[in-house]
Every structure is written in structure tokens, then in C-alpha cells.
Design a protein that fits this description.
Length: about 270
Amino acid sequence: MSSREDEALALAAVDALTGQLALAPKPGLPDPRDLDARVTRKDQLALRWSAKALAPGLAAMAAAARRTGEPTPALRTELGAIGRSTEHSVALAGGGHRGALWALGLLVAAAALDPGAKARDVAAAAKRIASHPDKRAPRRPSRGSSVSAKYGAAGARGEARAGFPHVRRALDALATARSNGATEEEARLDALLTVMSTLQDTELLYTAGPHGLRHVQAGAREILEAGGTSTEAGAKALTAFDTDLHTRGWSPRGSAGLFAGALFLDSLPAIP
């Protein structure tokens, strides 16, 4: 049974995910400003409702971690079972967020293991949890694992086993942009672009192949090298990049999920 602390962690993770959804313009990703179109509005509402549907599962993951007290193989197996059940609930609410669930679930569980821990310590604890195999995981390969094997990409599991390096880079980018006077929206966009600039996003590899992945990474780097989204040149490049990816139908969803993980860790000091 989850406690008030577990539920607070779960709600913080959901807030991080909905905060990511509200950000605009996100190159190639759903834009909340497009709600005037009926189909887009339906998709946006489904994403928001399915994000909220993650809360019970995330709270259960936090409770499991708090009860276990250590990043053991048994905890990893239990988190996997809860995650698969949560995926089913999310599918009923409209689907989506599978990659974000993986990242947020591990980070929420890691935060529950050591209440009050700093962001990087939480990422390190998540790494220890992810290092264990999930003995009850389905044997059939997922789309992400198949793409990872085909192209040698780390994928979501590789990111977790490495201690979420792109989540940590996003945290650094947030801090840098804020200290340089960027608005919160600009700082978050710069953090998302930082992830996109180097992540081997398996969702992009699946839909666009290695050429598409390199195109997206280069586009994100161009904006950051122009000074980021708080500069006139960077904002102009962001608009062009967003239009380009939406035209091509390329969506860096893997980057979005890890960025949501960074927003969750960024919120930890404020969680009671």
C-alpha cells in the first residue's frame, strides 16, 4: 500500500511529464498550441489523460522500493511487473508514454529508496536497480530492444544501466540556462535539445533510420551552438527545425521521455 510520500513522488513524476507535454515548440513532438485542430486536440487530451493514468503505478513502484529498502533483483522484478500492469492502464486511457514510464518508474523507485537524496544520487540508485535482470520480463523482444540490437544503440535500458547520462546532461543544461538569464521555458527547451543533440533515440532510428537520427542531432546542436533558444538566432533556428521535423513526421519521443525524467529529478527538493 502506498503512503503519502509515495503518492507525492508519483504526482511529481506526472507533473514532470505533463510539464514536458506543455512545452512548445518541441521539434517533432506534440505541440499544445495546435488544439484548434480536432484530431490534434483529441491526441493532446489522450496524452494528458494517459500521463495522469501513470500515477497509481508510479506510487506502487515507490511503495515497493520503500518496502524493499535496497536496489535488489527482487525489487527490479517487482518494478517490471508493476510497469507492465501500468502500461495496460495507460493504454486504456489513450496510450503513449512507454519510454517515459521506464525512466520515471526507475527514478521514482530510486528516490523512494533514499528520501531527500540529491538528483545525481537518485540517478545512481536507479542505475543499481536497472543493473539487475527482470526475470519475469516477456521473452519476445520489444521494438526498442530490436532497434537497439540492429543499430548498436544503447536504448532505454542502456541509458538506465549507465545511470541516465542524458537525464544528467539535461539537468546541467537547465542549471546553465537559468544562470544565464533564460526564462524557464527557454531553459527547458535548451535541456530537451541537449538530450536530442546526442541521444541515440531508438524511436527515431525506427522511423527515420541512422540518417534521420543524425539529421535530428545536427539540428538540435545547431540551435544550441547559436546560443540556445533565448537568443534571436537560436529561436529562429528552433522554429525552422520544428517545422522541418513535423513535415518529415520524425518524432524524437525517446528524448522527450528522458527529458521528463530530468524535470522529475529537478523537482525533488520541492517535494515534501
